[in-house]
Design a protein that fits this description.
The chain is built from 7 helices and 15 strands. It is of the alpha+beta class and 300 residues long. It has a single domain, classed as Cyclic Phosphodiesterase, Chain: A (Alpha-Beta Complex), CATH 3.90.1140. Helix 5 crosses helix 6. The longest helix is centred in the C-terminal third of the chain and has 21 residues.
Length: 300
């Protein structure tokens, strides 16, 4: 990112958001119960620090050995749109994360926070040496958690058999906080038309998995409870989500803010997966792409 942009950004001074010494998880699961679901548990609640956030399902097994409760059904397949290949999206995400750092004070009670972009990685190092693509900037198309190795093969057959044309998605000024039964998130949503485009794409992908891969999908994505988004930050329940989301909304919609170039539209010509055991990355490309070089992601 241009040094002048960061310098101009850091000159903005506003009151900070404070983390809390103690707060409540949205739900405590009984021992021995898997947290994986595509539905929000009825007992889940919003508490202070995240009262304005959206409750979302815990549908991705971050820790398969603990989340899946099985030594055989422990494979996780997460097809993603690799936004880390979009310079425009990397710059916007970095600006938003810089804003969070500037306006967050955790000196009283540190919260466990993980930023998506600002973790000492560059676009070049990401492309040449990807260690964990799920930790990079992306959109998850679907969450296939807790499957067997045989089912994983069938899911990948469904991916390879799916024929699709490239499509466009757009990010605008829609930033939210979301809470599941283990974490909280700051997220940037795609616009309404892009939500519909991605819904159609994912339903077709799921149908291909069922028909061509012969795999029963355990938890089809619920679009109402889990809209398509790019995660900027993951944190624990002590993070001041309400305060920070309000500040981010003001920042991103400020017409005098010259740092942002929104909306951002990108053409999606591929999605990727990474094996959680071997770390092998696979590309699944569209049958058509407007650019002759057929890039994975193209800024428009």
């Amino acid at each position: 990112m241009d040094a002048s942009v960061i310098t101009a950004f850091t000159q903005v001074i506003q009151p900070k958001c404070w983390s809390s010494r103690s707060t409540y998880p949205s739900l405590l699961l009984p021992a021995g119960q898997s947290p994986i679901n595509n539905q929000i548990p009825d007992e889940a609640q919003l508490y202070p620090l995240y009262e304005t956030c959206h409750l979302v399902p815990y549908d991705y097994a971050y820790n398969p050995s603990a989340d899946c409760l099985s030594s055989t059904s422990n494979r996780v397949i997460d097809p993603i749109i690799p936004l880390f290949l979009s310079p425009s999206m990397i710059q916007v995400a970095a600006l938003l994360e810089l804003f969070i750092l500037k306006h967050y004070d955790n000196s009283f009670t540190p919260s466990a926070t993980n930023f998506t972009v600002l973790h000492k990685r560059t676009l070049t190092s990401i492309i040449l040496n990807v260690v964990n693509v799920i930790a990079e900037l992306h959109i998850s198309l679907d969450y296939f958690s807790c499957y067997t190795a045989e089912e994983q093969t069938g899911i990948e057959i469904g991916f390879s058999s799916y024929e699709w044309s490239s499509f466009n998605i757009t990010f605008y000024h829609n930033i939210i906080c979301a809470i599941d039964i283990k974490h909280g998130y700051i997220e940037l949503l795609v616009d309404e038309q892009s939500q519909l485009t991605l819904q159609t794409f994912v339903r077709g992908l799921e149908q291909s998995i069922s028909q061509n891969g012969n795999v029963i999908i355990k938890y089809p994505r619920d679009f109402d409870q889990d809209p398509f988004h790019a995660t900027l930050l993951t944190a624990d329940y002590r993070f001041p989500y309400d305060c920070m989301t309000e500040k981010l909304e003001d920042y991103i919609t400020n017409t005098q803010n010259q740092l942002f170039k929104m909306p951002i539209t990108i053409e999606v010509c591929c999605f990727i997966t990474q094996d959680t055991i071997t770390h092998q990355i696979k590309y699944y490309r569209a049958t058509t792409c407007t650019h002759s070089s057929n890039p994975c992601i193209l800024d428009l």
